[in-house]
Recover the amino acids of this structure.
């Protein structure tokens, strides 16, 4: 899901509210947001939401996904 709301450098309180609002409204509308890997690991808003138990359940059940790049191979 690409939106400036999910930009990892946005960290004001307004940005955190916009992030949460867009994410949950997308889920309620039947979408399954897929975040880029950098959004998932660098976003202050996502890290704040990850502390909530219900958010982790949404990820475990596949409502929110993280796109991974490539495969890691052992040499």
């Amino acid at each position: 899901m690409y939106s400036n709301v999910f930009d990892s450098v946005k960290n004001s309180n307004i940005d955190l509210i916009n992030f949460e609002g867009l994410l949950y409204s997308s889920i309620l509308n039947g979408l399954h947001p897929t975040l880029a890997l950098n959004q998932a690991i660098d976003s202050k808003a996502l890290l704040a939401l990850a502390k909530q138990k219900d958010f982790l359940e949404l990820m475990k059940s596949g409502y929110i996904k993280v796109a991974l790049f490539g495969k890691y191979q052992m040499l």
About this structure: The CA atoms of residues 8 and 75 lie 33 Å apart. The chain has a mean pLDDT of 78. The chain has one domain: 4-67.
